[in-house]
Amino acid sequence: MISYTHWPEDLARKYRQKGYWLDQPLTRVLTQTARQFPQSTAIICGERHFSYAQLNQLSDNLAARLSAQGFGIGDTALVQLPNIAEFYIVFFGHCCKVSDEAAFCLIQRPYISKTLLTRRISPRGSP
Fold it and tell me: Model's pTM, two decimal places?
Protein backbone atom coordinates (compact mmCIF):
# COMPACT_ATOMS: atom_id res chain seq x y z
CA MET A 1 0.00 0.00 0.00
CA ILE A 2 1.31 3.41 -0.94
CA SER A 3 1.23 5.77 2.01
CA TYR A 4 -0.06 9.30 1.72
CA THR A 5 -0.54 12.30 3.95
CA HIS A 6 -4.11 12.96 5.06
CA TRP A 7 -5.52 16.44 4.77
CA PRO A 8 -5.62 18.34 8.06
CA GLU A 9 -9.00 17.69 9.68
CA ASP A 10 -9.93 21.40 9.84
CA LEU A 11 -9.41 21.79 6.07
CA ALA A 12 -11.27 18.56 5.33
CA ARG A 13 -14.23 19.75 7.41
CA LYS A 14 -14.19 23.14 5.66
CA TYR A 15 -14.11 21.53 2.18
CA ARG A 16 -17.03 19.26 3.07
CA GLN A 17 -19.05 22.19 4.44
CA LYS A 18 -18.45 24.20 1.26
CA GLY A 19 -19.42 21.23 -0.89
CA TYR A 20 -15.98 20.81 -2.48
CA TRP A 21 -15.74 17.27 -1.12
CA LEU A 22 -18.74 15.04 -1.60
CA ASP A 23 -17.41 11.92 0.14
CA GLN A 24 -18.28 9.90 -2.94
CA PRO A 25 -16.00 7.82 -5.12
CA LEU A 26 -14.96 9.66 -8.28
CA THR A 27 -16.48 6.85 -10.33
CA ARG A 28 -19.88 7.64 -8.85
CA VAL A 29 -19.47 11.34 -9.63
CA LEU A 30 -18.48 10.51 -13.23
CA THR A 31 -21.28 7.97 -13.70
CA GLN A 32 -23.95 10.31 -12.27
CA THR A 33 -22.73 13.23 -14.37
CA ALA A 34 -22.66 11.02 -17.48
CA ARG A 35 -26.30 10.06 -16.80
CA GLN A 36 -27.49 13.60 -16.05
CA PHE A 37 -25.47 15.46 -18.69
CA PRO A 38 -24.25 12.86 -21.20
CA GLN A 39 -23.49 15.29 -24.02
CA SER A 40 -21.88 17.99 -21.85
CA THR A 41 -18.17 18.47 -22.38
CA ALA A 42 -15.98 16.73 -19.82
CA ILE A 43 -12.56 17.19 -21.46
CA ILE A 44 -11.16 19.51 -24.09
CA CYS A 45 -7.84 18.33 -25.49
CA GLY A 46 -6.68 20.54 -28.32
CA GLU A 47 -9.28 20.14 -31.06
CA ARG A 48 -10.78 17.02 -29.44
CA HIS A 49 -13.80 17.24 -27.16
CA PHE A 50 -15.01 14.35 -24.98
CA SER A 51 -18.47 14.29 -23.44
CA TYR A 52 -19.11 12.83 -19.99
CA ALA A 53 -20.77 9.84 -21.67
CA GLN A 54 -17.68 9.27 -23.83
CA LEU A 55 -15.28 9.63 -20.88
CA ASN A 56 -17.35 7.19 -18.84
CA GLN A 57 -17.57 4.68 -21.72
CA LEU A 58 -13.87 4.88 -22.59
CA SER A 59 -12.83 4.45 -18.95
CA ASP A 60 -15.28 1.52 -18.59
CA ASN A 61 -13.74 -0.09 -21.69
CA LEU A 62 -10.22 0.33 -20.33
CA ALA A 63 -11.25 -0.97 -16.90
CA ALA A 64 -12.77 -4.07 -18.51
CA ARG A 65 -9.60 -4.73 -20.52
CA LEU A 66 -7.35 -4.24 -17.48
CA SER A 67 -9.55 -6.53 -15.39
CA ALA A 68 -9.42 -9.16 -18.14
CA GLN A 69 -5.61 -8.92 -17.99
CA GLY A 70 -5.69 -9.64 -14.24
CA PHE A 71 -5.45 -6.15 -12.77
CA GLY A 72 -7.48 -5.71 -9.61
CA ILE A 73 -7.72 -4.06 -6.22
CA GLY A 74 -4.30 -3.19 -4.85
CA ASP A 75 -2.46 -3.50 -8.15
CA THR A 76 -0.27 -0.61 -9.24
CA ALA A 77 0.05 0.68 -12.77
CA LEU A 78 2.66 3.18 -13.83
CA VAL A 79 1.38 5.62 -16.43
CA GLN A 80 3.42 8.44 -17.85
CA LEU A 81 1.35 10.73 -20.01
CA PRO A 82 1.33 14.46 -20.58
CA ASN A 83 -1.76 16.49 -19.72
CA ILE A 84 -3.94 14.95 -22.44
CA ALA A 85 -7.39 13.35 -22.53
CA GLU A 86 -5.96 9.84 -22.33
CA PHE A 87 -4.53 10.59 -18.89
CA TYR A 88 -8.04 11.09 -17.53
CA ILE A 89 -9.35 8.00 -19.29
CA VAL A 90 -6.55 5.96 -17.68
CA PHE A 91 -7.08 7.67 -14.32
CA PHE A 92 -10.78 6.80 -14.20
CA GLY A 93 -10.30 3.41 -15.87
CA HIS A 94 -7.53 2.07 -13.66
CA CYS A 95 -7.29 4.13 -10.52
CA CYS A 96 -10.99 4.55 -9.93
CA LYS A 97 -12.73 1.60 -11.57
CA VAL A 98 -10.17 -1.23 -11.34
CA SER A 99 -8.10 -0.49 -8.24
CA ASP A 100 -11.02 0.98 -6.30
CA GLU A 101 -8.67 2.99 -4.13
CA ALA A 102 -7.06 6.40 -4.03
CA ALA A 103 -4.67 6.95 -6.87
CA PHE A 104 -1.01 7.65 -6.47
CA CYS A 105 -0.20 10.18 -9.14
CA LEU A 106 3.43 10.82 -9.84
CA ILE A 107 3.87 14.11 -11.58
CA GLN A 108 7.24 14.57 -13.18
CA ARG A 109 9.61 15.79 -10.51
CA PRO A 110 13.34 15.60 -11.15
CA TYR A 111 14.24 15.13 -7.48
CA ILE A 112 12.44 11.80 -7.11
CA SER A 113 15.08 9.11 -7.20
CA LYS A 114 14.92 5.92 -9.24
CA THR A 115 15.34 3.98 -5.99
CA LEU A 116 12.18 5.52 -4.57
CA LEU A 117 10.29 4.69 -7.76
CA THR A 118 11.55 1.12 -7.67
CA ARG A 119 10.29 0.72 -4.12
CA ARG A 120 6.89 2.20 -4.93
CA ILE A 121 6.38 0.45 -8.24
CA SER A 122 7.26 -3.19 -8.27
CA PRO A 123 6.01 -6.03 -10.48
CA ARG A 124 3.12 -8.12 -9.27
CA GLY A 125 4.23 -10.70 -6.72
CA SER A 126 7.47 -8.95 -5.75
CA PRO A 127 8.03 -7.41 -2.29
Answer: 0.68
